[in-house]
Amino acid sequence: MKNIGSLMKQAKQMQAKMAEVQEGLANLTVEASAGGGKVSVVVTGKQEIVEIRIDPEVVDPEDVEMLQDLVTAAVNEALRKAGDVAKDEMNKATGGLAGMGGLF
Fold it and tell me: Among residues 54, 50, 10, which one has the least CA distance to residue 26?
């Protein structure tokens, strides 16, 4: 029974670390761009878009599709980066156990 108590204590400590990491992710930002920096997107570690910047040079009423593609590419890259950072931070906090089938 002593082992179960120790395990429970470790699980609570890990949950506390994970909560700290999640809180920190809200303050962390990553940026990605497309079109040689013509479209940039800033995303939090919690994968929330906080800013989109578009260079006026790429705003062409005759080619809206290109601008849409650039925005989509920049958003997807920023979200991917944010997801990678969140995963890395969570793995640091849990010693790699966070990815074990949603155990924690």
Answer: 50
Crossing angle of helices 64-94 and 2-27, in 10° steps, is 150
Kind of pairing between the strands at 49-54 and 39-44 = antiparallel
pLDDT tens digits for 52-82?
999 999 999 999 999 999 999 999 999 999 9
The neighbouring-strand residues paired with 31 are 42
Helical (H) or strand (E) element with 87: helix 64-94
Residue with tokens 């924690």: 104
For the domain 26-95, what is the CATH code? 3.30.1310.10
Number of neighbouring beta carbons within 10 Å of residue 82: 25
Those residues whose C-beta lies under 8 Å from the C-beta of residue 20, and which sit 6 or more positions away, are 93
Contacts of 101 (CB under 8 A, 6+ apart): none
pTM for the complete prediction?
A: 0.74
Domain residue ranges of the chain, discontinuous segments joined by +: 26-95
